[in-house]
Each structure stands twice: as structure tokens, then as C-alpha cells.
Design brief:
Blueprint: H1 2-17, H2 41-68, H3 71-78, H4 83-86, H5 96-129, H6 132-136, H7 142-176, H8 181-190, H9 193-209, H10 216-234, H11 259-282
Helix pairs in contact: 2-5, 2-7, 3-5, 5-7, 5-9, 5-10, 7-8, 7-9, 7-11, 9-11
Protein name: Possible ABC antibiotics transporter
Keywords: Membrane, Transmembrane, Transmembrane helix
Transmembrane segments: 53-79, 99-123, 144-166, 186-209, 216-237, 257-280
Length: 288
């Protein structure tokens, strides 16, 4: 009771002394001029998103290492599962380890897609808040500003997939005693990069063409993940998940790498991104 009374008295005293809406410690004035590292839109976008990229990267790397550490005992633990469950992770007891790692990579790609959407969504937030207007009042073009933000998104996606692949590979290597699991895991995760970037490109196209409809991209991602994950159990046709870019990537190491779909996703991602950039150059900037 005594501590509570003292804390309440201290709180009332602090409220009397500080400015309304301010914190306990007064803010320090910023620099009169931006640092040279922030002299271009890409550097500014990277500065704004570096914390998010670091947090997502650490989380996915830890998640990957945890799931990777389970591979050593996966065959013995899951060998007697019902056939419906086995269908999710390889289809048979002989493919359990590769199937489990493939499903782990697919789930990681889905989470990286969530990061990509949130990263592109920042463009919409900058526009709605009006912070984009001072930037565009300089020599920075609309396409340059948007391309810088999308470049940071692409960099973040590749970094997240690589970190998750390293974490999963290290966990799997320690669990199975097979060092080759590390490069194989990194490659398997990076194989999803065009698909994840394709989802970001769809978000960019919606931002450029119909910004108020941007959140529709979530429907595509969640629906595609659910179909890709539980389609084997529900006996859904392959065409059910055709709209999701993630479902056009082979789940390595269970399935072999498909260069054709990889290149096709890269080309489609570039085209959709270009359409979004062109649309943003023509439409009005809308702030709330």
C-alpha cells in the first residue's frame, strides 16, 4: 500500500511538471541536415525498415533452427501417422524428412510474404499520412520513390529467406549429422524468392492502380497457403491454388528444382511491378 501511494504521488507530480502530450524526457532536436547516407530514397526507405527486417530475420532464423532441429527424430516420430497427415509431409514414411523440410520452407515463404505485404503497405501509409509530399517536392520522382521502397522490400525478402534457410539448415545438420543440409536448405528457401516477390508485386500493382483495394492481396496469400497446405488432405484439384505464386514453386528438397517456373515467376514479377509503377505515376496522390 505504501509503495502504491508513493508511486501515485510521484505520478501526479510528474504530470504537473511535464508538457501536455510530451514524455518524461524532453525530445532532443534533430540534426539540421540529413546525414549523407539518407541522401536518396532508397537509403531513407532502408532506414525506415531496417528494424522490421532485423526483427523478422531473427524470428524466422530462430523458427527455422527449431524446426530444423526436429529432423533427426522426424522419421521415427511420424512414421506411424495416418495417411492423411503423411500426405502433408511427403506422402510416405520414406520421404518424411525431405517432406517436413519442404513444408517448413513453404511455411517460411508464407511468413516472408506477410512481411512483403506489410513492407509494400508502408508506401500506402506514407501516402495517407502526407509524408510523401515533401519527398516528391524535391527532385525525387514518383517512380523513383516507389521503386526505392520496393527495392528495400525485395532486399528484405531475400535476406529473410536466406536467414531462415541458414537457421533451418544448421538445425537439420546438427540433428542429422549431415552438413550438406545447410546449403540445400538455403537454396530451397531462396527458391521461393520470385514467388514472394510476385506477391509483393501484386501489392504494388494494387497500390498503383487501386490503393483502397490494397488489402485484397491478403486474401490471395492466405487462401493460397491454406490450399497449398491442406489441399492434399481435402483432395482439392491442383487448379485450386493456381492463383497463389507460392504454389508454383517446388517444395525442395522433396521435389526437384524447376527452372521454368522460377524464370516465369521472375518475368511476371517484373511485369506486374512495372505496371504498378506506371499506374502510380499517373494517378493522384491521396492523403487523409
Amino acid at each position: 500500500m505504501g509503495f502504491a501511494a508513493a508511486a501515485a504521488a510521484a505520478a501526479y507530480r510528474v504530470v504537473d511538471r511535464r508538457d501536455l502530450g510530451a514524455g518524461l524526457v524532453p525530445p532532443r532536436p534533430g540534426r539540421a541536415e540529413a546525414a549523407p547516407a539518407l541522401a536518396n530514397p532508397f537509403a531513407l526507405a532502408l532506414r525506415q525498415q531496417r528494424g522490421s527486417i532485423a526483427g523478422w530475420g531473427a524470428g524466422l532464423a530462430l523458427m527455422g533452427s527449431f524446426y530444423g532441429s526436429l529432423t533427426g527424430s522426424i522419421a521415427e516420430s511420424f512414421a506411424n501417422l495416418p495417411e492423411d497427415i503423411l500426405a502433408l509431409i511427403g506422402g510416405s514414411a520414406a520421404n518424411l524428412v525431405d517432406g517436413f523440410l519442404g513444408l517448413t520452407g513453404y511455411t517460411t515463404a508464407f511468413l516472408a510474404s506477410c512481411f512483403a505485404i506489410l513492407s509494400v503497405r508502408r508506401l500506402r501509409g506514407e501516402e495517407q499520412s502526407g509524408r510523401i509530399e515533401p519527398v516528391l517536392a524535391t527532385a525525387t520522382s514518383r517512380a523513383g520513390w516507389m521503386a526505392a521502397g520496393l527495392s528495400v522490400t525485395a532486399l528484405g525478402v531475400v535476406a529473410l529467406l536466406a536467414l531462415a534457410g541458414v537457421g533451418t539448415g544448421l538445425g537439420a545438420a546438427a540433428s542429422t549429422g549431415e552438413p550438406t543440409r545447410v546449403p540445400a536448405s538455403v537454396w530451397a528457401h531462396l527458391g521461393y524468392a520470385p514467388a514472394v516477390l510476385g506477391i509483393a508485386a501484386i501489392g504494388a500493382a494494387l497500390f498503383g492502380l487501386a490503393p483502397r483495394a490494397f488489402d485484397l492481396v491478403w486474401v490471395l496469400v492466405v487462401y493460397g497457403y491454406l490450399v497449398g497446405s491442406f489441399g492434399p488432405i481435402l483432395d482439392l484439384p491442383d487448379s485450386a491454388g493456381v492463383l497463389s505464386p507460392l504454389n508454383h514453386v517446388r517444395q525442395m528438397p522433396l521435389e526437384p528444382f524447376a527452372a521454368g517456373s522460377f524464370v516465369a515467376l521472375v518475368v511476371l514479377t517484373a511485369l506486374v511491378t512495372a505496371a504498378g509503377l506506371a499506374a502510380f505515376r499517373k494517378r493522384d496522390v491521396v492523403s487523409t
